[in-house]
Each structure stands twice: as structure tokens, then as C-alpha cells.
Write a structure and sequence with these properties.
The chain has about 475 residues and is an alpha/beta fold. The chain contains 18 helices and 13 strands. The chain has helices at about 5, 20-25, 40, 65-75, 85-90, 100-115, 130-140, 145-160, 175-185, 205-230, 230-235, 255-275, 280-290, 295-305, 355-370, 390-395, 400-415, 460-475, and strands at about 15-20, 80-85, 120-125, 170-175, 235-245, 245-250, 310-315, 315-320, 330-335, 375-380, 425, 450, 455-460. The strands form 3 sheets. Strands 1-2-3-4-5-7-10-11 form an 8-stranded parallel β-barrel, surrounded by 6 helices. It has a 3-stranded mixed sheet with strand order 6-8-9. A hairpin with a 4-residue loop joins β12 (about 450) and β13 (about 455-460). The termini are close together.
Length: about 475
């Protein structure tokens, strides 16, 4: 291998693999002592999922976990990002509630099997499945004083049980979605909103900001616990993962230029600024005034610097126009239609997603310059339009997804090798088609097709592309020239 070839590859310790979340794949919701999560009953309520289906079976991965690991090993991934089910580990969720030994044993065996196959476990502690008992007991994320203590105890149980083998921890997945979709728009569990046709209770003008605040503090205090009590012995890394798509001004008018930054402040800065810079964005303070909770000086000391890296989930780019009344987008209107009437990129099955790989490179640069920490891309993917209604043979030829990943991997390499962005990992979403929350099983993000009638898994072309690409584009460590 020539030195020029080495220089044109990602570094040998670059981590890549596929990602999932517990409620989206496990099923077996009533097995081995698991308690209910907020998604169990919510997904059974009429109208809450697009196809009326729930997560009771999903991809049956609680039972088929050995087959899942065999497929990951066949793909040759370096790592697998998965999440733990809080209510499988502590069925009632609280700091004085009993731990479920069968829940611990399941994940312990799973982690051992990953390691036996040479796969690094990359573990998310919380991916949206709050124990229902905590929501019923005190309002869950709405009650800062209770939830922080209960979450930290849950994290402690996990660090103690798995931290000897897990060296990559994510505290919380996508706090914006938890706050806005769960307590603002009301489309995700627990489904609270000011819209009385959607929810009998909730206040979209206050609750999302309260919830976001509780999530930040729960994350930060769990990280403090890890650093004080576990890191010296276990030697792991811990951080949070934030969603956020690139925001591009609709045109070069000054108001739209500002609007793009406002969109980033609310989509990303709401969580990233306190955690990495030590304060909420000025724009959010102006927009929300007294509705934005404040950190005490003691809390701020714990929050600032509470992530070892930047965990980044991103899917698309939005063109931003000043205006509108949607605070959740920073009073900015999003569109995919350029001023000349053309579309930004290929349309996915979900309305919010188009393929625009240049935006991925721009966002990596923005995050790196603003927060100055190594970036782990923990989710990124594409749902092909109408894939759910195609015959399997056709669905496996997922050309739009392959094109998406071709563009993204080119942008990834350019950001690292040309722009000097420190990206350490890349996890496409998702390992398998799965329960896509409010979309039920209609929207498919997997690089592996799941036939829900048989639970058979079939690699799509996108899986083959990614396996080949990472095989060819990471240094092997051979120093021979």
C-alpha cells in the first residue's frame, strides 16, 4: 500500500457498525419480568401508529438475538449500537424499585456474544422507552427532582453490571425528539400536547422546555457518577447523542441567513450549547423568556463539559425561511423546494427526509468548529419510498438508499481527510427494518429487509455497499509501503 493510499483512507481505529433501539426490535414486551414502557400502551391506542400496529413483537430480537449477532458478524461490522430497555432492567424504574436479574442476564449474555464475535458494544442507556410506572408515579421527565435521581440510579445499575465490558456509553438518544415529539407535538409517547383532539392533557408551550431541561440534567448527573465512580476502573467514554439536521438559508437574504442559524440553535444548540459551552443559546432565551428553565450555578458546573464527544444523529438538510409560528423549529419555515422550484434531493418515504449529502459535510464542519470535540455519528439513514409495498426482491434493490450512502460516505471521507474534522465513528440507521415509532412498520430504514410474517432477514444492496465501502476505506494498520 502506498503512503498516498493510506492518506486517502479513514484511520484504522475508525469505528463503524449498525444501530438499533430496544423497543424498535426486541418485542417480548411481557417476558422475563420486563415492566411496561410508555410506548407499550401508547402504541396500542387507535390512531397513534400509522398502521395500527404496536411493539409487542417488532423484529423479535429478544428471542432472535443470536441470529442478529451472527448477521452482524457476517457483515463484518466493528461495532453495534443498541439500547438497553430501562423497564427490562428495573421494571418499575425507580431508585428504590427492585432490579430484574433476568433483564441484566439478557444484556450481559448479549454483550458477551458481541465481544466473542469481535464486535464492540456501543450502548445507549435511554432510547425513548421510559418505564410507564415513572410516568404514572410523578409525570416522568416533567418532574426534574424525581427523574434525575431515578435515571442516575438506573445508569449506575448498568455501569456496574456491564461497564467492565462496555467502553462506549450514550446516556440519552435525541432529547429534542423526547421533548418536542413526546410533549409538544404529542405524536410520540407519552403523547402530551395542547391539541385536545390529540391529548386530554399537556401544554405544548411549556412542557417541552421543562422536559428538555430534565433530560440534560439526568444525562449530566449520570456522567458525573460515571466519571467519579466508574471511569478510573472501567476506562470507558460517555456522552449524549443529539439529533439535528443541517440548516441552509433559502436564499442569501439576511433574514433567511439568520433564520438558518435560529433553526440550528433550537434543533441542536438547545442541548449542545449547555452541555459543551455551558449556557442555553441566546436566541432561545429571547424566544422563550421565562418559559425556558434556568440552571442553578451548581447544576451548570455538572452540565458543562458533561460529554466526552459529540454524538450526532442526522438525516437531511432543510432550506430555511424566516417566519412561521413554530417555536420547535425556532420560528423558521422548512422546505425542500429551492427558489427555482427544484427539489433539494431524492424524496424518502417520510416527508421530512430528502437526500442531500453536501449538507452532511457542512454539518460535520459546523459541529467540529463550534463544539471542538470528536464526533461519533450514531445514526444516519434513508427510508426508500413505498418500500413496504414492494415485493421482497424489489425491496432488496434499494437503489435510493445506496445512492444516499454513496453520497454520505463521500462527504464523510472529505470532511475527515480534506477538512480535518475529527470523526471517530459512523453508524448507519438501521441494522434491520423495525418498529418505526408512530410510523409503525410502514417506514423501513433497515439495510436488512425484515419479512414480518416470518421474521426472516435479507441483506439489501445498501448493506452490501456499506460493508464493501468500509472494508476498502479504513486503514488496515499494515505499515508496508
Amino acid at each position: 500500500m502506498t503512503s498516498a493510499e493510506v492518506a486517502n483512507k479513514l484511520p484504522k481505529d475508525f469505528i463503524w457498525g449498525f444501530a438499533t433501539a430496544s423497543f424498535q426490535i426486541e418485542g417480548s414486551t411481557n417476558v422475563d419480568g420486563r415492566g411496561k414502557s410508555i410506548w407499550d400502551d401508547f402504541s396500542k391506542q387507535p390512531g397513534k401508529t400509522m398502521d395500527g400496529r404496536d411493539g409487542d413483537v417488532a423484529t423479535d430480537s429478544y428471542r432472535l438475538w443470536k441470529e442478529d449477532i451472527a448477521l452482524l458478524a457476517q457483515y463484518g461490522v466493528k461495532s453495534y449500537r443498541f439500547s438497553l430497555s430501562w423497564s427490562r432492567i428495573i421494571p418499575l424504574g425507580g431508585r428504590n424499585d427492585p432490579v430484574n436479574p433476568k433483564g441484566i442476564a439478557f444484556y450481559s449474555n448479549f454483550i458477551d456474544a458481541l465481544l466473542e464475535n469481535g464486535i464492540i458494544p456501543f450502548v445507549t442507556l435511554y432510547h425513548w422507552d421510559l418505564p410507564q410506572a415513572l410516568h404514572d408515579r410523578y409525570g416522568g421527565w416533567l418532574n426534574k427532582d424525581e427523574i434525575v435521581q431515578d435515571y442516575v440510579r438506573y445508569a449506575k445499575v448498568c455501569f456496574r453490571a456491564f461497564g467492565d465490558r462496555v467502553k462506549h456509553w450514550l446516556t440519552v438518544n435525541e432529547p429534542w425528539c423526547i421533548s418536542i415529539l413526546g410533549y409538544g407535538r404529542g405524536v410520540f409517547a407519552p403523547g402530551r400536547s395542547s391539541d385536545r383532539e390529540r391529548s386530554p392533557e399537556g401544554d405544548s408551550s411549556t412542557e417541552p422546555w421543562i422536559v428538555g431541561h430534565s433530560v440534560i440534567l439526568s444525562h449530566a448527573y449520570a456522567v458525573r457518577l460515571y466519571r467519579e465512580e466508574f471511569k478510573a476502573a472501567q476506562g470507558g467514554q460517555i456522552g449524549i447523542t443529539l439529533n439535528g439536521d443541517w440548516s441552509m438559508p433559502y436564499d442569501d437574504g439576511p433574514q433567511n441567513m439568520e433564520a438558518a442559524q435560529h433553526a440550528l440553535d433550537v434543533a441542536i444548540g438547545w442541548f449542545a450549547d449547555p452541555i459543551y459551552l455551558g449556557h442555553y443559546p441566546e436566541y432561545m432565551k429571547q424566544m422563550l423568556r421565562e418559559r425556558l428553565p434556568e440552571f442553578t450555578p451548581e447544576e451548570l458546573k455538572v452540565v458543562k463539559g458533561s460529554s466526552d464527544f459529540y454524538g450526532m444523529n442526522t438525516y437531511t438538510t432543510n432550506l430555511c425561511r424566516d417566519g412561521g409560528d413554530d417555536e420547535f423549529q425556532g420560528l423558521v419555515e422548512y422546505t425542500f423546494i429551492r427558489p427555482d422550484g427544484t427539489q433539494l434531493g431524492t424524496q424518502a418515504h417520510c416527508a421530512w427526509l430528502q437526500d442531500y449529502p453536501q449538507g452532511f459535510r457542512e454539518l460535520l464542519n459546523y459541529i467540529w468548529k463550534r463544539y471542538k470535540l470528536p464526533i461519533y455519528v450514531t445514526e444516519n439513514g434513508f427510508a426508500v419510498k413505498d418500500e413496504h409495498s414492494k415485493p421482497i426482491e424489489e425491496a432488496l434493490q434499494d437503489n435510493d438508499r445506496v445512492d444516499y450512502f454513496k453520497g454520505i460516505t463521500t462527504s464523510l471521507k472529505a470532511a475527515v481527510l480534506e477538512d480535518g474534522v475529527d470523526v471517530r465513528a459512523y453508524f448507519p440507521w438501521s441494522f434491520v427494518d423495525n418498529f418505526e415509532w408512530a410510523d409503525g412498520y410502514i417506514t423501513r430504514f433497515g439495510v436488512t429487509y425484515v419479512d414480518y410474517e416470518t421474521q426472516q432477514r435479507y441483506p439489501k444492496e445498501s448493506a452490501k455497499f456499506l460493508v464493501k465501502w468500509f472494508g476498502e476505506n479504513i486503514e488496515t494498520g499494515d505499515k508496508k509501503l
